[in-house]
Amino acid sequence: MIDERDIQDKDINLGAPNKGAASVRVRRIVAYIVLILLSILCLVWFYILFINATRSNGDLSRGFRAYPSDRLFVNLNNLFHGTLPVARGMLNSLIIAALSAVLTTYFSTMTAYAIHAYRFKCRKAIFVFILAVMMVPTQVSALGFQQMCHNMGLENSYIPLVLPSVAAPVVFFYLKQYMDSNLPGELLEAARMDGAGEIGIFNIVVVPMMKPAIAVQAIFAFVGSWNNYFMPSLLLHKDEMKTLPILIAQLRAADWLKFDMGQVYAMIAFSIFPVIIVYLILSRYIVGGVTAGSVKG
Amino acid sequence: MSRKLSHTQRVNRWGYIFLIPFLLAFVIFQLIPLISTIYNSFFENYMSGLTHIGPTFVGLENYKKLLSGGELLQYTKNTMIMWILGFVPQILISLLLAAWFTDPSLRLKGQRFFKTVIYLPNLIMASAFAMLFFTLFSNVGPVNSILVSTGILRHHFEFMSHVGSVRGLVALMNFLMWFGNTTILLMAGMMGIDTSLFEAAEVDGATAGQIFRKITLPLLKPIFVYVLITSLIGGLQMFDVPQILTNGTGDPMRSSMTLIMWLNKHLYNRNYGLAGALSVLLLIITGILSLIVFKATAAEEVD
Question: What ipTM goes with this model?
Fold first, then answer.
């Protein structure tokens, strides 16, 4: 594996052990500098957003300033009494995201449990099938979906944005993997011996044991639905049904120069900061949960 | 014995029952719409002003129209350019960070803080993030205000009217939203490598760079393939960011119009024939790409 040139490098290193320690220190310093720069690159946009959301329109037009002002609540108050149905949009987003998160985790656990715990004829075929459709993007069937909702009178309704999350191959795959390593078969057998029914075992034994994995997936499902723009924008046309991303798009489409920019920033902050706050509280679980579903082990 | 077997069989029937919700939702909300999308692609069906033309069966006409027009090529090119501009720095930075985070000789402090920060943009509402960039980079926005007041620029720069800057902003946002995610995925892959390999190499006197090139990279190949292809599939679906940034126009001169933005446009204008053909094309491309991922990673999961 190691060719001759590498062996020569090695001799040089052995000849100068101090150089090795020094190079580690240099590399560590470089690593910290790069990490700090990248962190700034990630956060600076949200810092400017926060600053600007606290400033008045006139103040904003005088150019950028690095420290906040005191108009945040004035801006938010104006926003809520403005033309965009922001409060209603937030409520719609919350309802759709919460229902999606509950449905997708409960039923994906159920699907994972069916494949994990029972041995039936098409088990393997169905498992392969679910994995195979995992990557198919929702956009490719959007046309048929939009027409179906139109024909069934389901436009301007929560149903087509919530019910499809029952079938979520990615969530299923994550939970199935978690189940394989964390749900002992003896426990199910013991519950069966005690005379518990299969539905009872699932609800009383399996779901509570899956709580950590369900929590991680519920967060991801909630955020995914909260941020979703493509499908809702095709289905929700009535003002009282619109979600936050649609209102953001509406804000963008309006002749925004005539807007009170303090309000514009307040609206963006209003869509972004709740997620950031929740993320900072739950980040340990979220960052840990990123990998488990996608990479083996 | 036979009674026990029949009992097991009876219990195992519950497997089918527990699969019912998934299968029902899948068939109703994904399979039937997909079939009807494919069906639509063979029909002439659009709005011309207020009159509805069709639906009339036209065979492969929609596909011919789609493939012969220059738009498909142009929008595919736009999508790919913006994806590559975001992906190349993303994979390089992620690889570097993942190597640093997992390098035991560096012993970096504050890892959890850095991971939390770099993953944060991934959870931000893409449409709000794009709207934020639009206001920050507008002609009277704070970025121009800073550039002019510090004397870097004499006049404001119109970020939204130049092909390079619009594509660059889309790529920058995609980079920011995804490099943390990729770093964490690559880290998981690196930590999965048997540490005795590193120890053996160290005993043999290999340098950090050599260990990285000769051991880490080759063993990371499956995760590499996974990251590359899933990112490509995600790139093909690029929509929210350029849609909001350019207000759906893909300007300047449609240089930032992506495939899904085009699909969205057809769907809005009830141009169902072409929308159907475009969907089928996207389905075929993502299908092929998914197959590669499936072969590379998921196949071994099936016991």
Answer: 0.86
